[in-house]
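We include this case.
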Amino acid sequence: MRIKLVCIGTRPPSWVREGYQDYARRMPRSCALELAEVPPARSARLRNSRRARDDECQRLLTAVPDGDYRVALDEKGEQWTTSELSRVLEHWMGRGRNVSLMIGGADGLSKECIDAADTRWSLSRLTFPHAMVRVVVAEQIYRAWTILQHHPYHRA
């Protein structure tokens, strides 16, 4: 199985890139974590955030392979504990489908992207910088995987 983070933004700070890569490298081939960066909407061309979100949504959906289980990271999605996420990951692994996690840009995801998702996941009721979400998601996926492997990384 492959878990693909499909993210708006192609130039995150180096600490974001390094943090994401650290956790992605730790994942096994049987549950590989991959990154697909999608260019953001050009604010000069698309003056309002609704049009920018719509443009970015089309780019995100194009980057998601057909047949993938789509997860929208959205503040109104389900919030899972780490243990619950490990059960969700186990379920995803058992389905035999790849998973694409869609992470919006500075203006979030459009309604079309949210509606196209099979499920919605909220990391928190807090708002995070969208680049930081890459690192948080990668770490949490790794942590959930270690729980399934009975690895001592997670200390509950």
Observations:
- The domain at 2-148 is CATH 3.40.1280.10 (Alpha/beta knot).
- The chain has one domain: 2-148.
- The helical segments are 14-26, 49-63, 82-95, 111-116, 130-148.
